[in-house]
């Protein structure tokens, strides 16, 4: 079924292309004769096809093919027949039938909304179908009819207006809903007037409060007071709130009604009435309640679709009103008073609440259908508003308020209140807000709305408040302002906690906390500066003068319902921070000043005599609450200007905090500065440390890191660390600050781990701590500004200055080492930057300072080397990562390498020497950078592309740097050629192609001069010493093939890298140019055709053209030229495979030309923005990998090695895909016994001819194919595999596992190697590759596969 739905969605996306599939689906729909009375059962395939056709119709309702529409309409007409189980497949459960109804009607409704014609056809007969189900004038199963009606209540198709009145009347008559005989006729005075089968929905149940006259609705709904609508002093709550130091209690209409029925009276006549109500509720069956819910929903849908008779509409409104009145009584019934208990009672309550929810929505829809311009309608809206608010309040105080259905009912009631607010142009807005405010306060006063998640009722109040405020903002500002200020003033109310009991103590903070959170969320949602300006002064006043100004239970309270510390202060700060984060500058500045002043005032009191008498909450505010406000503000600010300002202010605060900590003898500065670090980390997360920084901001960063080092807040930088001790956030005496700083170097970390993480994040956004002084660390005044000498004991300022210098150098070491330890040394980049920046760009800045004394230079050089070791450790720790983590590791390595290469062109000689030293170490530890395209590109061309213009005109500098680069480049190329000559030549050819497109000749000249002296060959070479991978004959042969040179395998190889590289690069450029030229020509021709086609249709002969071409359909879009070429080359390569399978001879030049052009086409379609055919792309790539294996000749394999090298060099991202295809092709040659794996005797050469002389058996005919050619092809192929192994062994675990699969398949028992003498060398080359691969068990990236490698090694040795 799921597959059929997916096929349907696919057809809907392009119905013309999949017209045959659509016809197949329609053909599986039940025929017309199967939908007649007495027809056989439908099958499951029939039902699935109907659903699929209707689903298609809901997505493409105006499609020309009418078969889906016919299938849907015919089945819809047969719905009355589906009320019998004989209509459905055998053993088709009722649950699946209900699911089918729901899905089918949903698709029909969607299609009716999208297509007016289809909707009219459905409406023509839908009313009769619904009436037949409601009246049940057809024999059928009641369960199936109810399932249909239930689905209909969720998805109601259109009906005719003439059917609407009959349907509503039938619902009143059949679904146990009784209505008054006349809209103005009073109800019967006795509940016995209704039959035992009638529903409590009947108006007969509410003699006391239910009158049918619309003119009396307002007074009826408001109980005993008809003037309560405009009385702001009468809040709607059934509980007492403590306000202004005294208890102010009120009774709402709910209390009046409840008292009237005796809900709060143990005896008397009222108690009898109450028991009668309870008995009536208990008499209702769950089935009856479900019918009522369906009826209300169906009537609501009818009101949405069409208009009904006004008298009938009045009956609907009265019944819905009586339901709401009934709900007030129902929700007041206590749980223990019900006869039922347990799950049955819960099911009854949920069902009854669902009925009330449907009735509340029906009441709003009935109001929307009335004429709202008259005076009577205004009274009607007043009454409905009062009733909705009373019902909502009843939900709040009900014992069932935590049920999901009760929460949904509450939300539905509030939606009705919001609807009334927007009626009559907002005329009722003032009255509504007066009545709505007590409901908001009542919701906020609920204890179970306080916590991390306030619940659905709180969210509903918030949503409705925002809707009303946003509407009233443009209609009538005055009541809206009064409403907002009225809510805000509740947080300033004082209470005498000594005169009230403990239960009331908790009520006020809950109300205040929720109101604060409500106002903050409202401001964020409304996002208007005027609202913020109204509320923010009240919040600030509360912090400075109200109960929140001193630590107390009101300011900081831990509630049992919330496991985390929360307080009025925290909520006020959270609200202020959220409002400030909206980007209004005035609000932001007030919030920052407020937070900063409060934090500094807390620090000033620490250590004083007054601090000994402070409550513990004061420390919690300083350590947790205020820092949380700073962090919230940092997270919420989005304006670049405000973030920059906040960064400066926050760093200034850190400097002041550090200085204040220094002035307090015996206290730990970490307790003062640490809590601020998460906020600093967040505000610095988008700061680019490589840009030019103002001296004032740079000094603030420098001060911050000075204190981080001094207080021991940085994570330890030594590799071997002791176990981390439990962190501390309280004041303690640590003795000397120098001891703390030294202990922080080796650990353990003593503070909150979040502070350590924050320091790491700060390091990514901190610029180099280079001071502006020419003497740098020799400027005593600038150094002493970081430190208060009065806090140290020593022999004068000299000792202090020396200590400060050492601490400052330690801060630099901490910063630069942590940069590399946190994320490998990649810095934050600007918002518009797309490249990563190496942290070496920061650490080298220290070395550029002029006139550094030797001691300082040695310290800074040591910091550079220590940072480099940290980077190496970070990279080595992730050597076994795969997937995205491996890509991040290799990207980090590439960024560092490229920066070190570019640093070799700097003027400072000592920086050039360090760069060369670090680059050499990096190349030796991670050889994969030798074949990294960006690194090689940077090495070959950066000396000219990135050199400063002022230095290019310096001949001495140019000569020195060019000589250095030539030496490094020559070493780089020779080493890469000695390990992987195929991949190295492929990369060099790509760079030659790139240099060929430049206008400047100097880079190309330098590259040519470097390559002209390099040769590789089978003879003695002076390029490298010792045994290298390139000395293996198979690798050398593959290298010759990868170069594109034309040579014979029997001749000695002496290959000039330059000449062959230039020739092959030219060939590649020519093929790429051919493809690009053909694409441009095709696109130009298409654009001309489109213009001609359009002008033809709009010209003088347009009428005839329309008749010929069919103007009702747009011109079909042709496939792109890339797709055409992809398909063409796939067919050409398939033709070569066909020739090879028929033992034909493949033309060498034609095959090479075709493969080269196909490769250029593939590479031109790698842009993710191109909409190329993925299937054809994959098929062409697979054929390029498999064709040489199919053909199995040396010429074909040479072409294959050349093409594969081209692919992996120009597009490294294809490396794993190409290798996977090649491994599959290699294993296929084992299965088909080709070349090296032709193990039959007749392929063994001389041994086959000399039978029975040398071996028993009869002589066999020699094979038609040349076995030696196939073995040579395998030898070339094997050389390419060894070359790729050297490239990927250090950086790609996935590709290493592919090679492991190849070796396992090759060496599996029994062995299938050929016994031909020509296969001897190739056989041992395979064994050599296996042993080289097994040696990876000692590498870090394959440690988890060590056992498998040992088994493979044992198999090879055996």
UniProtKB/TrEMBL annotation:
Pfam families: PI4K_N. GO terms for cellular component: cytoplasm; plasma membrane. Coiled coil: none annotated. Residues 185-203, 212-230 have a biased composition (Low complexity). Residues 803-1358 form the PI4-kinase N-terminal domain. Residues 179-230 are annotated as: Disordered. One of its GO terms (biological process) is phosphatidylinositol phosphate biosynthetic process. GO terms for molecular function: 1-phosphatidylinositol 4-kinase activity. Belongs to the PI3/PI4-kinase family. Type III PI4K subfamily. This is PI4-kinase N-terminal domain-containing protein. It comes from Escallonia herrerae. The lineage of its organism: Eukaryota, Viridiplantae, Streptophyta, Embryophyta, Tracheophyta.
């Amino acid at each position: 079924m799921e597959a059929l739905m997916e096929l349907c969605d696919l057809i809907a996306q392009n119905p013309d292309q999949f017209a045959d599939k659509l016809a197949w689906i329609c053909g599986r729909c039940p025929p017309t004769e199967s939908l007649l009375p007495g027809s056989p059962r439908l099958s499951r395939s029939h039902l699935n096809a109907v659903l699929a056709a209707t689903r298609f119709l809901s997505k493409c309702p105006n499609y020309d093919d009418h078969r889906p529409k016919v299938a849907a309409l015919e089945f819809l007409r047969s719905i009355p027949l589906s009320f019998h189980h004989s209509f459905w497949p055998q053993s088709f459960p009722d649950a699946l039938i209900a699911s089918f109804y729901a899905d089918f009607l949903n698709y029909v409704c969607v299609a009716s909304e999208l297509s007016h014609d289809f909707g009219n056809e459905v409406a023509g007969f839908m009313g009769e179908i619904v009436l037949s189900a409601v009246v049940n004038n057809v024999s059928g199963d009641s369960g199936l009819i109810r399932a249909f009606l239930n689905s209909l209540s969720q998805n109601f198709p259109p009906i005719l207006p003439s059917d609407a009145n009959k349907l509503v009347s039938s619902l009143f008559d059949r679904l146990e809903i009784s209505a008054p005989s006349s809209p103005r006729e009073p109800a019967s005075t006795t509940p016995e007037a209704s039959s035992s089968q009638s529903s409590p929905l009947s108006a007969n149940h509410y003699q006391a409060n239910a009158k049918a006259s619309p003119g009396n609705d307002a007074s009826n709904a408001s109980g005993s007071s008809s003037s309560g609508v405009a009385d702001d002093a009468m809040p709607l709550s059934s509980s007492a709130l403590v306000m202004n130091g005294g208890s102010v209690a009120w009774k709402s209409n709910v209390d009046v009604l409840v008292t009237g029925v005796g809900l709060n009276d143990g005896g008397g006549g009222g108690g009898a009435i109450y028991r009668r109500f309870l008995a009536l509720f208990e008499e209702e069956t769950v089935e009856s309640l479900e019918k009522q819910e369906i009826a209300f929903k169906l009537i609501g849908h009818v009101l949405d679709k069409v208009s009904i008779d006004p008298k009938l509409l009045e009956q609907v409104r009265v019944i819905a009103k009586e339901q709401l009145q009934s709900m007030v009584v129902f929700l007041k019934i206590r749980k223990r008073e019900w006869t039922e208990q347990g799950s049955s009672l819960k099911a009854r309550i949920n069902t009854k609440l669902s009925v009330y929810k449907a009735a509340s929505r029906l009441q709003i829809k009935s109001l929307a259908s009335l004429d709202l311009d008259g005076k009577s309608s205004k009274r009607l809206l007043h009454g409905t508003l009062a009733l909705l608010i009373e019902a909502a309040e009843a939900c709040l105080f009900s014992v069932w308020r935590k049920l999901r259905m009760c929460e949904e009912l509450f939300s539905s009631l509030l939606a009705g209140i919001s609807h009334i607010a927007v009626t009559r142009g907002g005329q009722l807005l003032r009255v509504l807000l007066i009545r709505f405010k007590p409901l908001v306060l009542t919701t906020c006063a609920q204890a179970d709305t306080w916590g991390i998640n306030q619940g659905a009722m709180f969210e509903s109040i918030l949503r409705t408040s925002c809707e009303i405020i946003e509407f009233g903002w443009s209609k009538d500002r005055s009541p809206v302002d009064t409403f907002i200020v009225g809510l805000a003033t509740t947080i300033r109310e004082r209470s005498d906690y000594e005169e009230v009991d403990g239960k009331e103590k908790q009520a006020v903070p809950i109300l205040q906390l929720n109101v604060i959170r409500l106002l903050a969320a409202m401001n964020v949602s409304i996002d208007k500066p005027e609202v913020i300006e109204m509320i923010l002064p009240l919040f600030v006043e509360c912090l400075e003068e109200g109960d929140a100004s001193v630590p107390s239970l009101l300011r900081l309270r831990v509630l049992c319902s919330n496991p985390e510390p929360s307080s009025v202060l925290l909520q006020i700060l959270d609200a202020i921070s959220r409002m400030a984060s909206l980007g209004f500058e005035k609000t932001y500045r007030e919030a920052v000043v407020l937070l900063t002043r409060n934090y500094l005032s807390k620090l000033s009191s620490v250590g004083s005599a007054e601090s000994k008498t402070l409550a513990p909450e004061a420390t919690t505010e300083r350590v947790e609450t205020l820092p949380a406000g700073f962090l919230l503000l940092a997270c919420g600010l989005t304006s670049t200007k405000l973030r920059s300002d906040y960064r400066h202010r926050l760093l200034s605060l850190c400097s002041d905090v550090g200085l204040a900590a220094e002035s307090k003898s015996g206290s730990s500065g970490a307790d003062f500065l640490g809590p601020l670090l998460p906020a600093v980390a967040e505000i610095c997360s988008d700061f680019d440390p490589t840009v030019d920084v103002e001296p004032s901001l740079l000094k603030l960063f420098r001060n911050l890191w000075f204190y981080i080092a001094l207080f021991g807040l940085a994570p330890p930088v030594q590799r071997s660390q002791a176990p981390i001790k439990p962190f501390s956030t309280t004041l303690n005496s640590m003795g000397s600050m120098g001891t703390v700083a030294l202990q922080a170097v080796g650990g353990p970390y003593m503070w909150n781990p979040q502070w350590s993480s924050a320091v790491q994040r700060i390091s990514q956004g901190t610029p180099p701590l280079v001071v502006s002084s020419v003497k740098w660390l020799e400027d005593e005044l600038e150094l002493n500004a970081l430190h208060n000498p009065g806090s140290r004991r020593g022999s004068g300022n000299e000792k202090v200055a020396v200590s400060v210098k050492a601490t400052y150098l330690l801060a630099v070491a901490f910063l630069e080492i942590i940069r590399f330890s946190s994320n490998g040394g990649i810095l934050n980049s600007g918002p518009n930057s797309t490249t990563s920046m190496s942290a070496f760009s920061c650490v080298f800045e220290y070395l550029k300072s002029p006139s550094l004394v030797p001691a300082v230079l040695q310290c800074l050089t040591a910091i550079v080397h220590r940072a480099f070791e940290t980077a190496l450790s970070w990279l080595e720790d992730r050597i076994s990562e795969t997937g995205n983590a491996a890509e991040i590791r290799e990207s980090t390595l590439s960024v560092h390498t490229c920066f070190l290469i570019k640093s070799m062109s700097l003027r400072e000689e000592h920086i050039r020497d360090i760069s060369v030293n670090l680059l050499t170490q990096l190349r030796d530890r991670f050889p994969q950078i030798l074949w990294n395209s960006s690194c090689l590109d940077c090495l070959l061309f950066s000396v000219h592309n990135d050199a400063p213009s002022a230095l290019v005109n310096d001949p001495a500098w140019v000569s020195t740097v060019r000589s250095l680069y030539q030496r490094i480049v020559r070493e780089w190329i020779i080493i890469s050629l000695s390990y992987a000559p195929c991949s190295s030549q492929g990369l060099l050819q790509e760079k030659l192609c790139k240099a060929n497109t430049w206008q400047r000749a100097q880079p190309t000249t330098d590259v040519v001069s470097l390559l002209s002296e390099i040769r590789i060959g089978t003879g003695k070479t002076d390029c490298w010493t010792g045994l290298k991978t390139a000395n293996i004959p198979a690798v050398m042969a593959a290298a010759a093939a990868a170069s594109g040179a034309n040579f014979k395998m029997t001749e000695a190889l002496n290959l000039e890298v330059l000449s062959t590289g230039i020739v092959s690069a030219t060939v590649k450029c020519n093929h790429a140019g051919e493809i690009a030229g053909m694409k441009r020509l095709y696109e130009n021709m298409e654009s001309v055709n489109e213009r001609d086609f359009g002008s033809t249709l709009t010209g003088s002969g347009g009428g005839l053209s329309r008749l010929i071409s069919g103007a009702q359909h747009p011109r079909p879009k042709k496939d792109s030229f890339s797709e055409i070429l992809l398909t063409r080359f796939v067919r050409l390569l398939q033709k070569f495979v066909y020739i090879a399978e028929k033992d034909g001879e493949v033309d060498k030049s034609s095959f090479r030309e075709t493969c080269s052009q196909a490769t250029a086409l593939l590479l031109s379609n790698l842009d993710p923005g191109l909409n190329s055919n993925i299937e054809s792309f994959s098929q062409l790539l697979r054929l390029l990998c498999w064709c040489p294996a199919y053909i199995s000749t040396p010429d074909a394999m040479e072409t294959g090695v050349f093409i594969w090298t081209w692919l992996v060099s120009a597009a490294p991202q294809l490396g794993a895909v190409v290798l996977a295809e090649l491994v599959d092709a290699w294993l296929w040659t084992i299965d088909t016994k080709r070349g090296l794996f032709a193990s039959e005797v007749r392929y063994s050469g001389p041994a086959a001819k000399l039978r029975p002389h040398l071996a028993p058996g009869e002589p066999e005919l020699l094979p038609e194919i040349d076995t030696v050619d196939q073995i040579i092809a395998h030898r070339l192929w094997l050389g390419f595999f060894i070359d790729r192994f050297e490239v990927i062994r250090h950086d790609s675990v996935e590709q290493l596992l592919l090679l492991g699969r190849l070796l396992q398949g090759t060496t599996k028992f029994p062995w299938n190697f050929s016994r031909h003498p020509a296969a001897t060398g190739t056989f041992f080359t395979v064994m050599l590759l296996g042993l080289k691969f097994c040696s990876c068990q000692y590498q870090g990236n394959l440690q988890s596969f060590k056992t498998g490698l040992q088994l493979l090694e044992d198999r090879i040795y055996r």
